[in-house]
Amino acid sequence: MPWKYPFVPLKLGVFQELRDAVLAGDPYQAHGWFISRQNPVLSLPDRQNTLEAFKKMDFIATMDIIMNDTGWFSDVVLPEASYLERYDPVLPVGDQVFIRQPVIEPQGEAKSALWVFKELGTRLGLGDFYQYTDEEDYIQQQIAPLGFTLEELRLHGYITPHKQEKPEEIKFSTPSGKVEIYSEALAKAGYPPLPTWEEPPQPKGGEFYLLTGKVGQHTQFGTQNNQLLHKYQDEPRLWMAPEAAEQLGLKDWDLVEVTSPVGSVKVALEVTKAIRSDCVYLTPGFGHLSMALRTAYGVGASDSVLHVTYTDPISGGQALSQTFVSVKKA
Fold this sequence. Notes:
The protein has about 325 residues and is of the alpha/beta class. Helices cover about 20% and strands about 15% of the residues. It folds into two domains: about 15-160, Rossmann fold, CATH 3.40.50.740; about 210-330, Barwin-like endoglucanases (Beta Barrel), CATH 2.40.40.20. The strands form three sheets. Strands 7-11-8-10-9-12 form a six-stranded mixed barrel.
């Protein structure tokens, strides 16, 4: 919805808004959803809203290396080659360009995303939009302006392009080309042109800020089914400060019910001094619905069940610290 979020690049969009557009049929009724390297059933707030949007679909296809939660609700799951089995587009970091290249052949029927997109586009009569013959040709076209070959990049794993002389004056990607403390673009769109303090929403009595965050053992929502990592990660509990727990008559390891405006979960309590008394914390990436995840299925609770969808009107990002929850003994 570019008219709703004019500062969000069109190629990125606002992912969580897809569901509302599907449910409302606005600006048109969507009938199919192709999902790659995303797991909206677990990664988006308000999981029930995601599942309701899925019900409106005539067809859902997911491409992933595992049968994740989104794949579990899909009509077709395409097996993607893992990072050890595929090429990915080159990645520039600083003044160097890095390559991810396969070290083993893809297992079973797995294919790289670049191969799948090319084949689907060709078979749908959209081949002109995929102007590469294979993954190697794609990368060769990427690095051609740098004056290096794919063989050189593969040999070293990275290349350092020849440095160009920097212009005397640095220009930023703003209308003025300078660092803008006062933003004309924001002003024209009806937003404060200067950074303005806005008092954040406050929880009511008996409510807590719901916080979530990453942990060292896992990568987002995709590694909880790894048996080795599972071995080194205890089933997450809900963190709560001692004074808050005492006020509610709760103690360590109690089974509690956590409720927000959009959902409710049951989870064991961890009483800890590592959190403020007006906050609770739940590790994301658990509470999987896919029974194909034999290690992760049924372990822990999903924070996406609880999070209310709040979208920043300028960046389109999800505000994940504005959901308030109540906690009681289950």
